[in-house]
Amino acid sequence: xxxxxxxxxxxxxxxxxxxxxxxxxxxxxxxxxxxxxxxxxxxxxxxxxxxxxxxxxxxxxxxxxxxxxxxxxxxxxxxxxxxxxxxxxxxxxxxxxxxxxxxxxxxxxxxxxxxxxxxxxxxxxxxxxxxxxxxxxxxxxxxxxxxxxxxxxxxxxxxxxxxxxxxxxxxxxxxxxxxxxxxxxxxxxxxxxxxxxxxxxxxxxxxxxxxxxxxxxxxxxxxxxxxxxxxxxxxxxxxxxxxxxxxxxxxxxxxxxxxxxxxxxxxxxxxxxxxxxxxxxxxxxxxxxxxxx
Length: 293
Description:
By secondary structure, the protein is mostly helical. The chain has twelve helices and three strands. Strands 1-2-3 form a three-stranded antiparallel sheet. Helix 6 runs antiparallel to helix 8 and helix 6 (about 125-140) crosses helix 10 (about 240-250). It is globular, with a radius of gyration of 23 Å. The model has no long low-confidence stretch (mean pLDDT about 90).
């Protein structure tokens, strides 16, 4: 088979059978294209020696461990796919070792910094109402920026103070939020959104200035701009608010399973990193305050 045909079949598999996100599909296709170019477009040469050789070349080129870990996962997915299609007599990806990426502790706001970021005077201008509502929802729910951008007006249950979110793998979950977020949403929906609605706006909850659904880049700019106004706050985007929300929930006594459900993590190990953040902060406070630290 030609390289283009192999790539096309693999793309269809990732999109329609695995239902991976567009970002992941692009990354996997780029990795597989680079691998096949390394092999001269010949699948017959795809064995464990070739896979390790390509990964070694990536390592020598200075690729980060996180990148190598993702590319190893991509190779396993690709070789398993080729084996099932009958293009490979066996699956060499099974012989690859696991490349573990180092897990750095995420930067988070402390609770006072979060309060300062969310308490800001407003003139009632639609952009300010929208930005405030987005920030309140991100921090109140800990949802991803893609999930925020995908929200529709009907996804918000005002009576129960719950938002319906479509997460990774098209998995739906309900996430509660507090009174400040509800108030900010009401101000946006009553006094801001109607002024920006256009014929093509559809049901999108958050809109851009031209009336279209808000995009992730705009949300990131809003978060960065707001946090620059908070003295001592780390520079972070929407995912930083997600980290902060999870950390503050655990510091407030929430159990790990509940936080996992709120964040939409498939694995509890993804949520456990936030316990490390809390312990690290506790250790610093102890070292600063305890007379025998």
